[in-house]
Amino acid sequence: MKSAQKVVLNTGILYSRMLITIGITFYTTREVLNALGATDYGIYNLIAGVIAMLSFLNAAMSTSTQRYLSFHQSNADKNVLKSIFSTSLLLHICIGFILVSGIELSGLYLFNGFLNIPSERLQTARTVYHFMSMSVFFTIVSVPFTASLNSNENMLGLSVVNIIEVVLKLIIAISINGYHGDRLILYGLSMACISFISLIMYVIYCNSHYEECTLRLKKHTNLGIIKNLTSFAGWNLFGALTGIGKTQGVAILLNVFFGTSINAAYGIANQVSSQMNFFSATMLKAINPRIMKTEGQGNRLQMLRLAMMASKFGYFLLAFVAIPCIFEMDNILNFWLKSVPPYTSSFCSLILVAIMVNQLTVGLDSAIQAIGKIKNYMIVAGTIKLLIVPVGYLLLKSGLPPIYVIVGYTVFEGIAGIARLKLLEITGGLNIKEYIKNVYAGILPPTLTIISSLYFVVSVSNSPYRLFYNIPFSITIFFISIYYWGLCKDEKQIVDNLIANASKRLHLRWI
Question: Topology versus the membrane, per the UniProt entry (predicted)?
């Protein structure tokens, strides 16, 4: 019961952080787009767009250290945890240097006529590219510290740092409007500085709160465990890089065929998808340490059950916002942005569909990570998702409009999900029929219900303010349908207990 309460408490903390950061981030995006203009904003998302994806890189690599720290969390010998942390920190410093070197060497080719950037902004783009390299290094080095916070289930510490980050970004977005020099260079430098400030905050907090977070690397580094950590972190890095390669590969394709203006639309779509992902990723952050610990205790069946629940609730927590947003995308964009670049609405809607498809099996990623056999999984799933780049090139080369690339993006997400199911069946004994029954069968009725309610309202109302009543109405219908048709008996019992406990506490406070 205490572990369940811990998960619920951490989920509440993370959702509070999410609501704050999403609101600030969306307003910040509007201010940055207005300050930089569509061309410079497109250049930033093309050249330094990896920065926006570093949250995924951070999460993917953090899983490596978090898994080992969570596995040994109950170990009375703190030296084991110190060895894991110190070895991980040293490893990530090395990975950071290697990755930055690769980024800088790639820049020699990218800026030698490959990227379609206006000649008068080419030198500025190069400068922003160097700032991106700095941000990459700082973010990678911070991974062991965020992993330690996750393994200790300290979501409050993570949330405080994240909120400080988005507040600093908001301050910068407002400030650059009054800057009379090159705003793009100032913005790129500011983003690099925020990454450095975040690293310092993580170091100070973890070093003062957790005994295992020692900076005495030479004393505690253990060569005996470096092989396992290297392999695990390396394959997680490969998976993260394929994800970045997919996203940035599509950005480069769109740029080569259509120029920087369409990168603004694609950049906004990625901003929307990254913020929407918070709704499910927040829950996963709270439940992932529990999945790791359950597997470490040898309870495979319970671990797989938790993974199924993570997929189902991860989908619900994304879909309840994403599906209404798809129906109201034009109104949302017009309300949010002063000037909406072409293709933005279509890109945003299709990418939201893609991430909902990904959520259908997202819990299986955590299960495979917990088991530890990730090599084949990363190769297969990563390669499938990366195929959109060559396929997208062929589509655009044949003269098709850019929307077909984003459709392909969605299709390959679905194929990767099927591969997840099969791989976990092989490595972890997953019963696919049971998964379909517990997850897909539970997801379908609420999804059809919310789509039907949204379609009805859209068909009878053309008001520009429709989203203000359509979205709350559809969300209410969605949650009711989830309770009655989307939950298994044990899941419904958990919800009933949470409601009963909350009601009891409220009653006691009023007495």
Answer: Multi-pass membrane protein
